[in-house]
Amino acid sequence: MRTRILFSLALGTVCAVPLLHAQTTPTPLAPEVRQPATEGQEGSLPSYPAYDRKQPTEPVAVKPKPQEAAPAKVPPVDQPQQEPNQAYAPYGPGADLEAKADRLGSAYIPVDSWVYTAMTRLYSLGYVDTMFLGMRPWTRRSTLHMLQASQDDIMSGDSEEAQEILASMLKELEAEIPSWNMSRGPVYGVQSAYTRLMGIGGPTLRDSYHLGQTINNDYGRPYESGFNNITGFSTLHEAGPFSLYVRGEYQHAPSGEGYGLALAQQLSINDTLIYTPPNAPQSTIPAGPIAAQNSFRLVEAAVSAHLIGHEISLGKTDAWLGPSMGGAMAWSNNAENIYSFRVNRVEPWSIPLLSRITGPLRYDFFIGSLKGHTSPNHPWAHAEMFSFRPTKNFEFGFERSIIFGGADHEPVTLHTFLKGFFSFRDTTPDEKYSREDPGARFSDFNFSWRLPFVRNYATLYLDSICHDDVTPISAPRRAAYRTGLYLSHFPKLNKLDLRLEGVTTDPGVRPSSGGHFNYFEIIQVQGYTNKGFIMGDWIGREAKGGQAWLTYHLSGNEWVQLEYLNKKIPKDFAPGGTTQNQFKVDVVKRIWHDLELNAWVQYERWKAPAYKTGAQSDTAAAFQVTWYPKLHSGSTNQ
Questions:
Q1: How many CA atoms within 13 Å lie on the side-chain side of 632?
Q2: I want to staple 111 with a disulfide (CB 3.0 to 4.6 A). Which of 191, 311, 320, 480 is the partner?
């Protein structure tokens, strides 16, 4: 134990690199940003010091810098011109991040929003150095703060792509930015209304725990061959430190064939269960016949309070814990969100002395009940993550998820929670099968790095997870990995980007584990799932594959994208193995400012002899219309 702790401390020291010292005076964010109010004024904006140890800890009033030359043009925001105000200064190690803290509450931005695509590209273009790529979602105000910390560089730089993204983001967040000398009042209204019409021709896969998925990272929504539809809305309410966000939708999917009884029994036995009630039916095994789905579901629904840089919430909220685009090893939106209690440090925090080495940090904790488990029934899960940014180009994080409790196994109490929370040693069989079980423990390590010399072009990242080890760093051969490289643009082709990711959950410690390794647990045998879908990476158990995206950006929030996906499962896990190949074309286009059209076509060819003999194929085509009405906002005199 002592060795592992020393190793973790040494890792933090090794990862530290010299901190940047140069700092430019921030140019005002026009026209929306107001001057920071004095301490105690509601709605005041914090002034975050830069990556500079000598930066003063108190904000300094800065006069607007006169323009000597015509600045790069940014598409105008639909607001009357106001007198400019001082924006955020970037933060950095050793600085007092609590000065002039923003006390206003703010709703989370859903992880399937275009905002993350735009902000990630902006980061890889060399801006928004205060962004934490591996911890999502972000709140609306924390996203605004990232932009305010980098707006001077964007406006004075020569990247038209960055300026387009900035303009699109300011339009998205305009309700958070009142006019001159005003504090933000209540923000409320319908944030979005949408409908997605999808048709699927041919047999599909819908089994992330065994054979595979035809559609992934879609909140566990139902789909089958034939006509599918989702129609929903989201509402947002922010007042002072409090916020309420609700996103609900009607979901329709036709009836389906599903697995035969023989295959369902075979897969269940492989998971060490006998396929009889109460373990039949199981949400992890789509046994047929599958009834048509026509239901209303809350996708997200949470009430939150902001307290000293934290968002404390209760309800359903998104989580995407990892830097990758195709999947997140620890937590993603592949499964339906769980109802949870959450404490999220949404604003970076600098700890005296420690942050001189590790840089600012963020952390996230949530705990809630899992559904769809039958053995044992109704277990709980909690996750905690710490992420650090020692330099503006490098970020790393550690995460831990634990599934514990469940009927007829152990109660969900403070004692059983703390048992797993502070457990870092191997568990004996007697302890594992008793009421002292610390739970199924999964540990994650990830990093992202804007590469030297090409930091405005290339970002390298890695996401890894292991089961029953302190961290993947201490047991690299037992870990699962998703690695990626993102090229934000090419010389002379500024609107084109490329992303490549490879993934494996098939460790090299033995020829085969029969699926009994990553995302599996001998007590909670339905594994790392909620309502039948894996909560982490859609690639599933004992699999290998990869994804590639080539995207042409029409503007800051419009694009045309080509995607390729491959996945393979060995024969000694799923009988006969599984192979999937997908090709997808996706187009996102805005009509005016508030109407988004999204159309995509996907062709899939797959083999799963245990389910259907011979090669199979399916084609899915979808068309989604999303309306983003203008939010109502009020401002008050400071």
A1: 7
A2: 320
